[in-house]
Amino acid sequence: MKKILLIITVLIFSNVFSQQKELTLKDAVLSRSKGLTPENVARLQWVSGTQNYIYLKDKQFIIKSSSGKKVAKFGIEKFNKVFPELKKLPSIKSINATELVFESKSQMIHFDYKKGKEISKITYDEKAANKDYNKRVKALAYTVDNNLFVAQGVGAGVAVTEVKDKNIVSGQAIHRYEFGISKGTFWSPKGNYLAFYQKDESNVTDYPLVDVTTYPTTLDNIKYPMAGQKSEKAKIGIFSMKGWKTSYLNIDTKDEHYLTNLSWTPDEKYVLVAEVNRAQNHFSYNRYDVITGEKINTIFEEKNDRWVEPEHDAVFLPNSNTEFIWMSERDGFMNLYLYNIDGKLINQLTKFKFIVNSILGFDKKGGNVFVDATGPDPRNLHVYKINIVTGKLTNITPKSGIHNCKLSDDGTYLIDNFSNLTTPREVFLVNTKTGKANSILKAVNPLKNYRLGETAFVKLKSKDGFDLYGRIIKPANFDTSKKYPVLVYVYGGTHLQLVKNNWLGGAKLWMHWLATQKEYIVFTIDNRGSASRGFAFESVIHRKAGDAGMEDQLTGVDYLKTLPYVDDKRIAVHGWSYGGFMASSLMLRHPGVYTTGVAGGPVTDWKYYEVMYGERYMDTPEENPEGYANSRVGKYLEDLEGKLLIIHGSVDPTVVPQHSMTLLKEAVDKEVQLDFFTYPMHPHNVRGKDRVHLMQKVLDYVIENNN
């Protein structure tokens, strides 16, 4: 009888195991298109001015109230009565209780979806880019090549700038998207003015990228200011929608200082600008008169021996033209400060020892401000309600994990898109007064039928006492008596955090393929210099990129060596961009620790990197020759033990190909063998179907050589 039961048990477990699917690398890399990412609520957003929200389901837009009652439902037929040319539902740019805005065939269309009729239409050049629509005045700002235009109605747009010199670029993001800059146009609150960035790149050197798809190849020069070299000069223009005239703020940037964090006062009288010196250790927050262009006053200044990096615009209190909230890391963590435009610090609203990520908005009366912040555990993201007068603090989303939230206009409800290590996704509607949460979606685990291993968090200590957070992925059918090889995946640079308390701990699905299909342990640790930990943790890299980060990565290796199931003679390392710099540096500066390295898009010499990012962290090559010399990857080539593969996109405009090319030349000069692969016509990242090829290349190299 016991024998029969044993046979039945074995058969049951064998049958369950046989029903589990095996993850392929292609499916892992293309997980979204393969249905292996958690279900989401499509096109979910608030309906402006209401407590209703809209989403897409079964080819129908559905609008519901905060109580869950269906308010409206419409599909393509509603649009086709007026726009028969539409073949599918358009993306909604903005929506209120009766009207919405969408784009179609070089048109921005204002549509009354209740009555089913067109309200207005704007036509624009088919080459238009950087489109910025103002629904209040029904106007569209956009760029064509290096100039800026504004359109209202049907017909040609009005030229805001008409500059033939291609070195003068208007209406686009400046300073290479640093300082939180993501665009180049800024409508005033009432829509009477358009502020815009303009950059003069006349003194910036050309960097040649080559298009190999033409016959013969053709040259594509981009502007790329390298550390210590000439940079762009910025201006801020003001275009009047009433006078249809353009003027400029009176700011002298011959010294190549930076203009950022542009904000309007609600009464449209002033523009606020953070002016950062090129050394990036001092900035002034200045107020300018819109009509005269003259500076009124400096509201405040910030200085730091390492760097200052203002990244957030001023957020004015509701119903106030003079009081605003400023986000600053001046006390070591990103906190909120209440100022007025005359320069008075009214109050420090938060004194967190953790990071505020952003301001989401206010409640209806303006007495409370809502922010998302990590809370004490930097792997999480929560929403906090803060009373502006009393400072009372309420965590509205207390469940451990990542809460990506959108606040309703009146601050009464949050749409909370939540996940954590073991929760694929849950979408809630949260009442910000009561904390009550109603479920909109609870996604099933898209990987429930796949054979996968365990993901767990670890916490270590840096040598100077900081907590270091890591993630370890084990193979399926993990056996503590076996010895497993390891791949360490690294980034390590600023503005990025790899280990988070979201679905799968932030791990990519290819890591699970490697763990399960090739029986690897995959390990990641966020070293000092990484994001979301405060200024002291991040700024330790100043003038010596990589040093503290490598020390922490080796702390991670020391931890791995304490695990009886780790084969410490078979540890490989892989990273991209800053992670490529880290991976190649770890291989060369700590020979023998790793058998194999794959460095993608690596910074190999910081003097070849851009002014804005590079000089913030490393100063200029002239100011910091020792730091540049010691961080140069090629310096350590002759110490290579094991195998190192360098991968680079042939038209990378971020980490330009010169990084890899000069490293390869030096390797030839020193008679050191490196492996190299390029992805023709790919920029800084390899995306789309070609990413499968990339990950196959990376992981095949690791598997073949990590022995």
Across the major sheet, the strand order is 36-37-39-38-40-41-42-43
CATH level 1 class label of the domain at 452-705: Alpha Beta
Enumerate the spans where pLDDT stays under 50 for 5 or more consecutive residues.
Answer: 1-18
> Number of helical segments?
11
Mean pLDDT over the residues: 95
Mind telling me the C-alpha Rg?
A: 27 Å
Task: Tell me what the structure shows.
The chain is an alpha+beta fold. Among the domains are: 84 residues, Thrombin, subunit H; 131 residues, Neuraminidase (6 Propeller), CATH 2.120.10; 254 residues, Rossmann fold. The chain is 16% helix and 36% strand. The strands form 10 sheets. Strands 36-37-39-38-40-41-42-43 form an 8-stranded mixed beta sheet, sandwiched between helices.
